[in-house]
Structures are given as structure tokens and as C-alpha cells.
Design brief:
Strand content: 25-35%
Largest sheet: 6 strands, antiparallel
Number of strands: 17
CATH class of the largest domain: Alpha Beta
Helix content: 10-25%
Number of helices: 8
Oligomer: single chain
Strand order of the largest sheet: 9-8-11-6-7-10
Bound molecules: flavin-adenine dinucleotide
CATH topology of the largest domain: Rossmann fold
Shape: globular
Structural class: alpha/beta
Length: 325
Amino acid sequence: MARITIGESTFSCQADESVLETLLKENIQIPFGCRQGVCQACLMRSLDNPPPESAQIGIKHTLQAQNYFLACVCHPEQDMTVALPNQQDAFIQAEVIKKQLLTPDIVHLVLKYQTSFNFFAGQFVNLQRLDGLTRSYSIANIPHQKNILEFHIRRLPNGQFSNWVHDELELGAQLTLSTAQGACHYLPGRAAQPLILIGTGSGLAPLYGIITDALNQGHAGPIHLFHGSRDLNGLYFIEELRDLAAKTDNFHYTTCLSGESIDSDHIQGRANDVALDSLESLGGWRVFLCGHPDMVNQTKKMVFMKGASMADIYADAFHVLQIEN
Ligand SMILES: Cc1cc2nc3c(=O)[nH]c(=O)nc-3n(C[C@H](O)[C@H](O)[C@H](O)COP(=O)(O)OP(=O)(O)OC[C@H]3O[C@@H](n4cnc5c(N)ncnc54)[C@H](O)[C@@H]3O)c2cc1C
């Protein structure tokens, strides 16, 4: 059993508990999201002893060196004095400048920031509202002069953050956002390599950013996008992407609907099945998978079985909060 000190208080962290579980049990308000070490919403810093390495996986090297760790997967091996990240280290403010429905379920949210902010299209940030409620959303645009960040946010039934964004968040409001995180983005080089991108629903957000980035950087190899949903409420940017495919020789775009009644404009089936059925082998391909966690996790295995190298598979599963029974 290790002891966790935060501020003036010290708590016992049982062997089977994470730092996050210990602090929440003691009613300490810590932002958190996926509880699986993915979203990084529960980023904290150890002020004395180094955290276990396993609690630092996926964190930027610069933050690892400063003893940052993910509280949800941190099972301390020794006593730790911990703190939330300094606001100036990891968070900036941004203003809502546009909010527009893309489908009845998905809203296009555009934020403008004033301070310097580095990101790659396809990375994600943690958005935080005033009361501390925090969720991860992927960046759908490439960095440019206008200091904006675009997001596609799907309303989940009874979802706290997504319903608040859809129904209450107003133009001009301020949101707090973390540094950009994650490795699901385009890297220049290997410009002739074929790319395949598979996404469901608002999983198009990071893929849209990645495609824009790849084309902007002169990617010459074929780029195949498969966007799927159960019904039309999950598909958007259809005309825009069809136009792009019509005028860009190496960009290919397929929409898939897995529900029962679909029109002939779309392929019937799940995007991952349709995509993988259409290709013999993925040896040498770069793969991007985003959206529903089941789809992402299943497809990771399937693309590996089809020959893609693990080093060439980039994925962001849109894990939602873990509900405890
Ligand atoms: C890396 C990453 C990137 C992401 N990018 C995007 C993105 O670009 N776009 C996007 O739309 N989403 C994205 N997500 C998902 C997003 O972070 C949120 O999880 C999602 O918006 C739901 O948040 P919420 O607060 O609305 O729902 P929550 O309040 O967290 O609820 C989630 C679900 O659980 C159910 N639920 C809540 N409480 C209970 C309860 N007590 N009992 C039973 N069920 C319950 C809700 O009904 C809801 O369906 C991403 C996630 C990750 C990890």
C-alpha cells in the first residue's frame, strides 16, 4: 500500500486501486475520461518520486521527463505527492466561433485560440468546461494561420458533455483545452505509400484532418477513405468528399451504411468489412482507424492479419466513460 499526498491531505492507495480511484473515493475532483490510459484527461504530476513507467505510456516525452503520469492507470509502487498539471503547462483557453449541425446528431464546433498552440491534424485534445467536466475530441483541421481548431461532436444519448455542447454551449463562450495528444496523425515521408482510413460516425473528424494534411503535403500514393455508420445520421461531408475524389486522382472515397434500409448511393455493410473485402493485402500500407472502440479494436487485428505492419497502424478508439455498476 502506498500513500498519496495531494495538497494538505494524504490517502492510502490500496494495492488493487489506481491513484484516480483512490482520489475519487476521497471526493477529490480530478478530471477523467476513458479510465483506460487513452484519453489523458486524468494527467497528473508527481512532485517527488517518479511514477511507474506503465503510467506514463503515451505521454509526450517532455512531460514524462517532468514526472507527469496518467492517474487512471497508475498503481504506485512507492509514496507519491501528486498535483494536477499547472494550468499554464497544459491548458489554454479558446473561444467558440462557430457551431453548426452536420447531421441531426453531429455538430461542427470551431474554436479560436490566441496563444501559441502546436498540433497535428488528427491528434486529440481534452476539452474542459467551467465545472471541470472533461472529454476528448479529435482535431479535424490542419494547423494554419487562423488559430482555429475544428471538431465534429456526436450527441450520445444522455451523454453529459456532448449534449451540453449541442444544446447549451453558445457562440462566444470560452472552453479550456489541453495540449494536443496522441499519435494518430500523418507524418510526411514515404509519399508513395498507400493509405487506408476507416472511420465510423464522428470518427471522420481525425481522418478528415489527416487526409487534408496528407494531400497538402503532396502525398502521391493512393488514399482510400471508408466512412461508415448505421444510418445517414452518422455520415456527413458527403458532397465535399465526393467532389474531392472527383478532382484528386489518388483519393478514393466510399460511404457505407450497416442499417437495414439504405439507398443505392452507399455500399451496404460495415465500413471495416467493406474496406477489407475490397483489398487483397495490406502489406506496405499505412492504416488509420478512428471511431467506435469495437470497430477500431477488431479492425486493428484484421488489418494486421492482412499484412499491415503494427508500426503502420494508427488508431484512436473513441472510448466513452467507463460506467461502474
Ligand atoms: C482519443 C479520443 C478521441 C475522441 N474523439 C471524439 C470526436 O472527435 N468526436 C466525438 O463525437 N467523440 C469523440 N470521443 C468520445 C468523447 O470523448 C466522449 O466520450 C463522448 O462525446 C461522450 O461524452 P459524453 O460526456 O457526452 O457522454 P458520457 O456522459 O460520458 O456518457 C457516455 C455514455 O454512457 C452513458 N451513461 C452515462 N452515465 C450512465 C449511467 N450512470 N448508467 C448507464 N449509462 C450511462 C451515456 O448515456 C452515454 O451514452 C473521443 C474519445 C477519445 C478517447
